[in-house]
Amino acid sequence: MVVEYGEPWKVEEATQILHINHGEMQITSSPKKFSGYFHFYRKHKDKFDRASKKYQLFTLYQIRNKRMTWRTLLTLLSVRNGKRLADGIRGR
């Protein structure tokens, strides 16, 4: 949407209410989630800034439940990913 319509802008009041039914299939519970997410990342990575690329790559590691080396962890570490890592350690 950003590519087609330009930079987003923030409104103060909610313009919609989102109702989520977690009983249905979601990309985060699909057996094909890594493939779909990786395809999305490869397709759009040129549009991401550095922090967003780190976030997306960190997510790919989490989806795969793959252990990171210290070097990879330090490379992908950001404020957002640090919070996600802490939440994961706490069991949220």
From TrEMBL:
It comes from the Bacteria. Keywords: Transferase. GO terms for molecular function: transferase activity. It comes from Shigella flexneri. This is Glycosyl transferase family protein,putative glycosyl transferase,colanic acid biosynthesis glycosyltransferase WcaA.
